[in-house]
Design goal:
mainly alpha, two-stranded antiparallel sheet, 11 helices
C-alpha cells in the first residue's frame, strides 16, 4: 500500500460493519443460551447454515413461481427461514439438551458437538457437499469520491444488512426489556432455581431462548446467502466459531456485549485484510480476543460471576 487514504479507510469501516452485523446476529444466540443455562450451544453455527440454505431455496422457489417483487421476496424469505430454523432450534433443545440439563457440564457439551456434526452431515447428504450459488437479488449501490481515483462503494445489500440488523436487534432489546417473557428471561439469567420457585416456567423460557437465537441465526443466514450468493454445508463451522469469539469478546451472557463483540470483530477482520494481508485476518481477530481477555477476563461488557451462597 503506497499511502493512507481516508476513502479506503471509510470503505473498510463499511465492510467491517457489514461483516460485524452478521457476526453479532449469530453471537446473540450463543450468549442468550449461555446467560440462562450456562451452556455453549456449539450446534448454533449449523442452525445458521440451515437458515442460509432455507433462504436460498425459498428465493429459488419464488423465482420459479414468477415472484419478482424484491420486497415480497425478502419478506417471504426471512419469514420462512425464521419459521424453519426456529423449529430446528426448539427441536435441538427438546431432544439433545433438555434431557441432559442436570448432568455434568461436559455431557451437554459433547451432545452439542454431536448435534453440530449430525446437522452438518444431514444437510450434506440432502444438498450435497458442493457450493450452491444463486443469482443476486438486490444489486447496485452508491459510489462516493473522485472519478479518477478510489471511490467508496456502498451497496444496497450492505444497507439492507445494516437496516435488518438494527430492526431485529432493537426488537429483541425491546422484547427483553418490556415483555413478560423478556422479564422471565432476565429472571432466569439471574437465578434459574429461584425463578422456578417463584412460578416461572423455566423450561418454556429456555425453549424460547433457543427459538429466538435460531431465528436471529436464520436472519444472518438469509443475509449471507443474499450478500455472497453462495452457501455450502460447512459455512456454519467457521461462522459459528467467529460468532462465538464475538460473544466471548463482548462478554458471554451479555446481549449488548454480543452486539459490540460482533462489530469489533468484523472491523478487526476488515482492517487486517486491507492493511496487512487477507491471511492475517484470523490472526488479528483471535489475537484481539486474547488481548481483551488478558485485560478484561469477562469481556468488554461482561460481568464477573458472583458466587451464590
Amino acid at each position: 500500500m503506497s499511502g493512507f487514504s481516508i476513502l479506503e479507510f471509510i470503505q473498510q469501516i463499511i465492510n467491517g460493519l457489514t461483516l460485524g452485523s452478521i457476526y453479532a446476529l449469530i453471537a446473540i444466540g450463543y450468549t442468550m443460551v449461555y446467560g440462562i443455562i450456562g451452556m455453549i450451544n456449539f450446534a448454533h453455527g449449523e442452525i445458521y447454515m440451515i437458515g442460509a440454505y432455507v433462504g436460498l431455496l425459498t428465493i429459488t422457489a419464488l423465482g420459479l413461481f414468477g415472484v419478482d417483487s424484491i420486497a415480497l421476496v425478502l419478506l417471504a424469505t426471512l419469514a420462512i427461514s425464521i419459521l424453519v430454523t426456529a423449529s430446528y432450534g426448539w427441536t435441538v433443545e427438546r431432544l439433545a439438551y433438555r434431557p441432559l440439563r442436570g448432568s455434568p457440564r461436559l455431557v451437554p457439551l459433547i451432545s452439542a458437538i454431536g448435534v453440530s456434526i449430525f446437522l452438518q452431515n444431514y444437510v450434506q447428504l440432502g444438498q450435497g457437499a458442493r457450493d450452491v450459488s444463486m443469482q443476486p437479488v438486490l444489486t447496485g449501490g452508491w459510489r462516493f469520491g473522485p472519478e479518477d481515483g478510489f471511490q467508496v462503494y456502498l451497496s444496497y445489500m450492505q444497507v439492507l444488512i445494516a437496516v435488518v440488523t438494527v430492526v431485529f436487534m432493537s426488537g429483541l432489546t425491546l422484547f427483553i426489556a418490556r415483555s413478560r417473557m423478556g422479564r422471565a428471561c432476565r429472571a432466569c439469567s439471574e437465578d434459574r432455581a429461584m425463578a422456578n420457585l417463584l412460578g416461572i416456567d423455566t423450561d418454556r423460557v429456555i425453549a424460547l431462548t433457543f427459538i429466538l437465537g435460531a431465528a436471529l441465526a436464520a436472519v444472518a443466514g438469509v443475509l449471507v446467502s443474499l450478500y455472497y450468493g453462495l452457501v455450502n454445508p460447512f459455512i456454519g463451522f467457521i461462522a459459528g466459531l467467529k460468532a462465538f469469539t464475538a460473544a466471548v469478546l463482548g462478554g458471554i451472557g451479555s446481549i449488548p456485549g454480543a452486539m459490540l463483540g460482533g462489530i469489533v470483530l468484523g472491523l478487526a477482520e476488515s482492517f487486517a485484510s486491507a492493511y496487512l494481508q487477507t491471511e492475517y485476518k484470523d490472526v488479528v481477530a483471535f489475537g484481539l480476543l486474547i488481548l481483551v481477555l488478558l485485560v478484561r477476563p469477562t469481556g468488554l461488557l461482561g460481568r464477573p460471576d458472583i458466587e451464590k451462597v
